[in-house]
Amino acid sequence: MTSVTVTNKEIASKQLGIMLLALIGLLFAGGLAISNLMTAGHAAFNTDNLGLFWGFPIVIYDYFLLTSTGLAMVASMALIFGGEDYRPIIRRALWLALAGLLGGVAVLMMELGHPLRALWAIPFSFAFSSPLYWKVMAVSFYVLSLVILQARMMKPDWQTQDLRINAMVTLALALAVTAIAGVVYGSQSFRPFWASGDIPVAFIFESLLGGLAFIIFFTYLAYAFNPAAVPASVKKLFNDRLTNLLALAIFIHLLFVLARMSSGLYGNAEGLQVWQTLATSRLFFAEIFIGLLLPLVLLVNPRTRIRPWAQILAALLVMNALLIARYEYIIGGQLVPLFKGAWAPPLLNYAPSPTEWLLLLVAIFLSNAVNAFGEMTLRLGREG
Amino acid sequence: MAKWGMVIDLDTCTGCQACTTACAMENNRLPGENWQDVLFYHEGTYPNVKLMWFPRPCMHCENPSCVSVCPTKATYKDPDGGFVLMDYNKCIGCKYCQVACPYGVRFYVDEKAVVQPDIRGVFPSEAGRQWDPPYKGPQDDPSRGIGIQPHGVVSKCTFCYHKVSKAPKGVADLDEDIPELKEYVPACVRVCAPKARFFGDLDQPQSMVNKLIADKRGVRLKDETGNKPQVYYLSGGATASVPSLRSMNDSGQS
Ligand code: SF4
Ligand code: SF4
Ligand code: SF4
């Protein structure tokens, strides 16, 4: 008993350390990014008017947004269908969903031309034909329902009908946000790299995959990566269920990526030629072999799947693979320039600028600071 | 109500870029960021190479994808005339319209300068606009995307709304050769020396634009997108033709 108490104290001080580090990082990365944006403006990004309009900041935003919805899906499904076993991760997943969303939205605000105007111009436009209008509306209600659900779960008794309804609403909104995010890209019929009716479904699976990987990684982080400090209920949940679910989600995601790649390589619609370059790139190989296949092996191998280090490593690799996948998808769909003739090469060159990388740090530090604050003050591991 | 349209005869177009220059002067475009551009392609491989060119303004689509995706209705289709315009006061700079326009005719105002030195630094604006050139068009209507752009928005060809909308009601063609109409003719049409560009009302069957489209089998760029451009191209095949691809392939062909 004494040793656990000591460990808890140690863990609390580690969370404080994480929060302070994240805040210092945020101050540094955010300050530098803002100063670059104040001096160079949007030219601090490597986007252009030849065809690459949405750059790395949009990749980051969508990555964090879809991770957030994935976490919310995991938490709300656990509340609706999961029973007792899932209790140790529910509050943590919900809080992490809020923290991640905050990081993503902060980056979006630094990317938009008029972020403050967006706050009123979108809701009052009633632009029903725009997927982005619906996305913003869905995100707004999604945040509201996340906050309400989190607040409700501060109270004991998680068996009530009102809580289930709240979880169902959160699940529906998380699914809606994710699916609409898919429609934003999938509806661009003249961009065959993006366009496909199944993109919203692929996005939902990717979100779920992200949600599972993040909850495993951040649960271990909550216990300072000290397996001895992880409660037995959490270990049981991870070993019996979450690792299997994570492996299944990786497999489904792999199927989507490989299906898109093969139709991309064999198709001849303009825009699909990006696959010829992408499928032979180091980034793509890293994503498939290190980011997805290696974790899959770790999670299905009976000797490794219950090892904490393997679970942490698998989750971390998947988190990175998903960022690469989001990058390849969003950037890849824009690499063929739009009617620029000889003014543009057959495929545009794009790599994120230093300011764009700083925005990734902003999102990571901000989310981690918020998450560590929650871990310190809200007892996120409480099981009812 | 008119539905203005443009016809560009590729058989007569010489690729001289006078239209591009006129548009740049009329609308204070930044060097290299041309609302109207002549695109050059080449076809074949050495020694059998043919140079092709293709003038391209905004298509002012009948069913514009840029308008349907805009989350703030900052870009909109004016029912009176069929202009697709920008309201700079509502645009949030999300660039979804740029992503959704199949023709690449939209420009985010704050990207890196295409041509150095960055002329925005040479003529900086005190009034929150993109720049302050020594000559500015007399028209300024941010709600229609006319005048120097503010920061953080997307801009595009206006079909010279500031001229065309003042044309006498009911006129079928805006032809620079008719002295009393020439002030209402879009700048790019008015300067076209070989008279490859025509501007008129697509809703009036007797208009020259309709006659040309019918007689010379006018086609629209990438009609399969469903955007239904109000800009038509005439191409007898003797010289330049409508490109089938939006980019060059690896061997530099269209
Ligand atoms: S060409 Fe592009 S910008 Fe112009 S109206 Fe059509 S979709 Fe909109
Ligand atoms: S950039 Fe402006 S005009 Fe374009 S979709 Fe966004 S808000 Fe609308
Ligand atoms: S119609 Fe006016 S704005 Fe459009 S390309 Fe021609 S000159 Fe430029």
TrEMBL record, chain A:
Record family assignment: Belongs to the NrfD family.
Subcellular location: Cell membrane
Regions that span the bilayer: 16-38, 58-81, 93-112, 132-151, 163-187, 199-223, 244-263, 283-300, 312-337, 357-374
Entry superkingdom: Bacteria
Keyword field: Cell membrane, Membrane, Transmembrane, Transmembrane helix
Any one of the GO CC terms: plasma membrane
Name of the protein in its database record: Polysulfide reductase
InterPro entries per UniProt: Electron_transfer_protein, NrfD-like
Keyword Membrane recorded: yes
Membrane topology, record value: Multi-pass membrane protein
Keyword RNA-binding applies: no
UniProt organism field: Thiocapsa imhoffii
